[in-house]
Amino acid sequence: MSSVLLVAGVVVAMFVAYNIGGSTTGPAFGPAVGADAISKPVAAGLMGVFFFIGAWTLGRNVVTKLGSELVVDTGVFTLEASIAVLFFIGIALLVGNVFGVPASTSMTAVGAIAGLGLAGGVLDFAVMGEIVVWWVVSPIIGFWVSLIIGRYFYARLNEMVAMERSTGPLFDIDRSGLIPIPRVHRTTNRRELGGTFTVVAIGCLMAFSSGTSNIANAVAPLVGSGELAMNPAIIFGGVAVTIGAFTIARRTLETMGSDITELPLTAAIVVASVSSTLVVFLSALGIPASFVIIATMSIVGLGWGRATRPLTAPEVVTGDGGARVTVDALAADEEGEPLPPIGAEDVDDIPSPGALFNPVTTARVVLMQNVVPAIATVGSYLAFRFVPIFGF
After folding, report:
1. What is the pTM of this model?
2. Name one GO cellular component term (predicted).
3. 3-state secondary structure of 181
4. DSSP 8-state class, residue 289
């Protein structure tokens, strides 16, 4: 009977990982595919490889944190309980999808496991408090780092990254030998090649950061139960993510998958770099991080920094600049658009609201980012506390 439950648990865990692969490949490689830098199969392959590298290295820390440190008695992680936890993770994420909000799988997984710990009276509140503190602090860090970049460095970055695509392909494939060799096409310029490499490298960084944090969301309950070892769990999860990247991710790659990829190329690179770096840092500490919330606050911070460029620092503080500051200014950037020094721009050139950042939409995203994990937490607690089969 236990072997049947273990197989069922692995199948459910792989299903969660499958959906992770489908939902995260678009945000990671959408810009590269949209720019015809790489094909969808190549994007899926890169997603699988770098997700697995992130999971195999730093991802172990997060699996350990969720699977054995969040609860003081891992005995509560029976096979039945582990399957139930994964079930609540899936249901809560489904609610987020119904409302069109990309829910945080990390926060949802922590919520479901916390519900189990509360019901069994074994939740480690010190570990839970550490995780929650970082959940609050990391988006603030992302906001301020992006704000500083937007205000003081974005113009120069925009000039460096800006590129115009040539009429031909990026590469030609030399098939004259036994092994096909890609060669730079005669119309491809150095700036175009550098920009393409940058956007693909950022996608690989995002895939790596996803692996460091998200692998735990799929396999931590089973590893915590002691029925599945760490290495096989990561392999199963990595395979499922790769399958998801090659199948259901094709649609997210077409639509660019998330709000981040709707930004100008420079902005997308900044937001992805800041967010991914923070996620990797937190994963090294064993903290399951929410990439979506960090990225959302990075978008707001970057736009706010760009929007305040027409004002000097004293004008921003005192409000004497006469300009309505909105983060919509970010969307007005054209690739390669030169910008005057800070405080020298015409405040009348600030775009009207709605071009990029809608406060109502952002509030809905942030709200649902907290509601979805709450659903997982409450549902998990009620089930484990009052359903006799679990014996708590």
Report:
1. 0.79
2. membrane
3. strand
4. -
